[in-house]
Write a structure and sequence with these properties.
The chain is mainly beta. The protein is 9% helix and 31% strand. The longest helix has 15 residues.
C-alpha cells in the first residue's frame, strides 16, 4: 500500500510540473534589456520589449552587440524581434562601432525606435551611433512607424548574410554643398519587385563635415522605387530632397519635414495626398513627370508662395495638363488680391470725413468725402496706411 501511494505521489508531482518555463506574455530582464516571451515549449522565443522607463544605453562605450539569445531561470530563448515601442525614447551611446542586432530578426514593431536619441552633444562629429545593423535573412515585417521621429544619426543597414545588398548601403546620399559627402543607409525592403524605403524618421543633429559644411540634401538613389509610409516623418535637418527614380510616395512619407526644394522624377506616378503634409517651407518644386503625379496635396502656404514666385518647373509639353490638374493647377492660379479694411481716424477736427466702402481690394478706388464745419476751413492733408485712412481738416 505504501509503495502504491509513493507512485501516486510521483504522478501527481509530474502532473503539476515544477518547470521554470515562463508563460507567454511574461516579461523578464537580462543583460540590461527587457524581453517578453512570445513562444514557449518546443520553441522558446522572446522579443525586445519596453522597460518601465526608456532604455538609457548612453553609458556604454564602443560597439554594442545585442544578444541573439537569453536565458531566464535556466531556460534559453531565441531573440526574434523588436516589439512595439521597445526602444521608444531610448538614449543610445556615442558608439564608434556598430550597434549590431546580430541575429536575423523577423520583425520590428510599431514605434520601436520613435524618439530615440544618441548620447553625444548635438552637432558634434561624434554625436551619433555610426551604424545600427539588422541582419534580415528572416525579416518579414518592419512597421512603417518603427523609426518615426528618431534622432539617431548614422546608418540603418539591413543586410542579408552572404548576399549583395548594395541598394541598402547606397539608399541615400548626403550632400554637404561641396565635394564632401557621406552615405546614409536606410531600411529597404523588396515587395513585389519594388525596393521600398521604409521609415527612418528624423535624422536630427547632423554633424558637420571636416570642411564645416552642414548636410542639407538627400538624394534617393535609383535602386529605391517606393518611399514607404512615414519614411522621413519629422525630418528637421534636410532642406532639399531629390527623389531619384522613385515611382510612388506613400502616406506621410515626408510629414513635417523642412524641405525648401523638392525634385520629383519622371518615373513618379503617384504621391499620397498627405505625403508632404506639414511641409510648409517648400519654395521650389521641379517635377519631371510627363503626367502630373496623382493625389498629392500641398500646404496652402506652399501654393501661395510658389504661385507668387513662379518657382515651379514641369515639362513644357505637360504644362497644360499640370495647370488643369485640381491640385497641381493651384501653383498657376492668380494669387488672391489683398483686401483692406477702410477706417477713418476718430480724432478729426473742424469737419467730417466719409468713405464709400468699408473694405476694398488692392487697386480698387475708394471715394473720400471731406466736409468742413464752415467755409473758414479747408482740407489740409490725407494720410493713407495699409490699415487706416486718416484725414485731417483745418484752416
Amino acid at each position: 500500500m505504501k509503495k502504491k501511494f509513493t507512485l501516486l505521489l510521483a504522478v501527481l508531482l509530474a502532473g503539476f510540473g515544477f518547470s521554470a518555463m515562463a508563460a507567454v506574455g511574461d516579461v523578464f530582464t537580462s543583460g540590461g534589456y527587457s524581453f517578453k516571451v512570445i513562444a514557449e515549449g518546443d520553441v522558446n522565443e522572446v522579443e525586445f520589449t519596453a522597460p518601465a522607463t526608456a532604455y538609457d544605453l548612453s553609458a556604454k562605450t564602443g560597439s554594442i552587440t545585442m544578444p541573439t539569445s537569453v536565458t531566464n531561470d535556466g531556460v534559453t530563448y531565441s531573440v526574434v524581434g523588436i516589439g512595439d515601442e521597445a526602444f521608444k525614447n531610448a538614449k543610445f551611446p556615442t558608439a564608434i562601432g556598430i550597434l549590431n542586432f546580430d541575429r536575423p530578426l523577423r520583425y520590428i514593431g510599431d514605434y520601436a525606435f520613435q524618439g530615440a536619441t544618441s548620447g553625444g552633444a548635438p552637432g558634434k562629429s561624434d554625436s551619433h551611433v555610426r551604424n545600427i545593423r539588422f541582419y534580415c535573412d528572416d525579416m518579414t515585417t518592419v512597421s512603417p512607424t518603427a523609426f518615426v521621429e528618431n534622432r539617431i544619426i548614422g546608418s540603418f543597414l539591413a543586410a542579408k548574410r552572404g548576399e549583395t545588398s548594395d541598394f541598402v548601403n547606397k539608399a541615400c546620399t548626403i550632400n554637404y554643398g561641396s565635394s564632401n559627402s557621406g552615405s546614409l543607409g536606410n531600411f529597404c525592403q523588396v515587395v513585389d519587385g519594388s525596393i521600398i524605403l521604409l521609415g527612418i524618421g528624423n535624422q536630427g543633429n547632423i554633424a558637420t563635415s571636416s570642411a564645416g559644411y552642414v548636410a542639407n540634401k538627400i538624394t534617393i538613389n535609383s535602386e529605391i522605387t517606393v518611399i514607404g509610409e512615414n519614411a522621413m516623418y519629422g525630418n528637421d535637418k534636410f532642406t532639399q530632397i531629390d527623389l531619384g527614380a522613385v515611382e510612388a510616395v506613400q502616406a506621410h512619407a515626408f510629414k513635417n519635414c523642412v524641405f525648401e526644394t523638392v525634385t520629383i522624377p519622371a518615373t513618379c506616378t503617384t504621391i499620397a495626398s498627405d505625403a508632404f503634409e506639414g511641409c510648409t517651407a517648400i519654395a521650389t518644386i521641379t517635377c519631371n513627370a510627363a503626367t502630373p503625379p496623382a493625389g498629392v496635396v500641398f500646404d496652402d502656404a506652399v501654393y501661395a508662395r510658389i504661385s507668387e514666385s513662379g518657382n515651379i518647373t514641369v515639362p513644357d509639353e505637360a504644362l497644360e495638363a499640370y495647370k488643369a490638374d485640381a491640385n497641381w493647377g493651384k501653383f498657376w492660379a492668380a494669387p488672391a488680391p489683398t483686401t483692406y479694411t477702410i477706417t477713418v481716424a476718430d480724432d478729426i477736427v473742424n469737419g467730417t470725413v466719409e468713405v464709400d466702402k468699408a473694405e476694398a481690394e488692392e487697386g480698387e478706388t475708394v471715394t473720400v468725402t471731406a466736409t468742413p464745419i464752415d467755409r473758414s476751413y479747408q482740407l489740409k492733408s490725407i494720410t493713407v496706411t495699409p490699415e487706416t485712412l486718416n484725414l485731417v481738416v483745418e484752416v
